[in-house]
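User: I'm preparing a small set of examples for a lab meeting where we compare how different chains pack in three dimensions. I only have the primary sequence for this one, and I'd like the structure in C-alpha cell form so I can line it up with the others. Please keep the answer compact; I'll paste it straight into my notes.
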Amino acid sequence: MSKTRHNHFFYQAIIFICVTFLLLISGSSQDVLAGTKEVYKNIEILSEVLRKIEKNHVKGTDPKELIYGAIKGMVGTLDPHSFFMSPEEYKELMIETKGSFSGVGIEITIRDNVLTVVSPIEGTPAFKAGIKAGDKIIKIGDKSTKDLSIMVAVKLIRGPKGSKVKLTISRKGLEKPIDFLITRDVIPIKSVRSDFLPFDIGYIRISNFQSDTGQELSKTLKEVESKKKLKGLILDLRNNPGGLLSQAVKVADEFLDSGLIVSIKSRDKKEEESVAHKNKNPRKYPMIVLVNEGSASASEIVAGALQDNKRALILGSTTFGKGSVQTLFPLSDGSGLRLTTAIYFTPSGRSIQASGIEPDIMVAFIPPKVKPKVKEHHVIRERDLEGHIEKEPPEAIEEEKGGILLDEESHIQKRIENDNQLSTAIQILQSWNIFHEIDSRLFQE
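Assistant: Understood. Below is the C-alpha cell output for the 445-residue chain.
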C-alpha cells in the first residue's frame, strides 16, 4: 500500500474516532443524530489540518503526537478540571491515588485562567517551604505558566527525589512575586492520622482522600475509641485538596447513622444519591470539623454532609468551592481521560461550586508570632562539671496522662498554642461538655 493511500486511511480513521468520541460525550442519541452532519463537517476540518501539517510543516511530524495534541486541545476547552492524559501521565495519576509520588506536594488547578494552588499537602517540601492555598504559580523554573495545562504543569513540577524546582508565586497582599526553590522528595501520603488532646478530646486529621482512606479512618476510630470514652472529636480537613468521591462518602458515613450524604446530578438530569448507614456502635460525641480555603472537593462533601445533617459544627474559613465531579476513563492505548461529568449537592440541596462551604463559626487562622532569638548568658551548672553523675531517666516519662504520653504532652501543647483554630475548637467542645453536664444535673433535680 502506498504512503499516500496509507495516510488517507489513517486520517479517515481519525475522523471516525473523533466522531465516535463526540457522540459518546454529546448526550442522547436523538440529539446526536440531528447534528451528525454538522459534527462530521467540523471533523473534516481537523483531518484537513492534519494532512496540511504532515505535508507542509518544516519539521517531520509524528501522527500520534498530533492526534494527542488535538485531543488535549479539545478537552482543554471544556473546563479547568477536564484533561486528556498520555499513557505515561495516566499511569502517574494511578500511582498517586494509591499512595506516593516524587515531587513537592501540592494540589493545583486552573482558577481565573491562572495556575493556582488548591493546597499544599501537610509535611511535604511545599508545605515546609511556605506555599499556601490560593498562591498563583506564574512560573515553573523559567517557563511561564500562561496557557499551560494542568498535566504539563504537574510534569514540570514533579521530578526525581533530591532535584530542585523553582516556583515563582504571586500572592494576595504582596506587591511583587516571590520565588521558592524547593527540593523534591518522595511524597508518601498517609491519609489519616490521630492524636489525643486535653479534656478527653480526640483529634483526627485527613490529608487527602485516596483509595484506602475510608478503611484507614474506620481502623483509626476504633483504636481511638477503644482507649477511652471520647468527650468530643475534632476532624481536621484543612488544606485537604480532596480526592476520590467514594472515599468521601465512606468517611461521612462513619459519623452518620442515617440521612443523605451527597447527591450527584449529571447533564441528563439523572440524580444519584449516597445515603448513610446505621453504625454498629453509634457515635454520639460532639464533633467539630476544621476547614479552610485549602479544603476542596471531597473535603467539602464531608463537611457539607456533617453540617447539613446537624452532626458537627464547621469551624474555620470558607472552603475552596470545587463542586464538580470528575470521572476517569481509561482508553484503549493506555491513555486516559479525566472528564467533569456531574455537579454534586449537599444534603440540603446546596451546590458549593465557586462558593464553598461557609463555616458555622468563622475563625481566620492567625499565624503564630516568631519570637526573636535572645542570646542567653551561659551559667555553669552541675552538668557542665567534668565527671558529673548522669541523671537516670524517670519511668514516669513513659506513663500516660489523660491519653497523652508525657514526652508528647509539650509537643501537643505547643501545637495548640500555635493553632488558634484548633484551640478554639477545643474550647468550644470543653464548654459544650460543661453545659451538657449542667443541663443533665438540672434535669435530674
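A couple of notes for your slides: The radius of gyration is 27 Å. The chain has three domains: 3-61, 100-188, 192-362.

User: Perfect, thanks.
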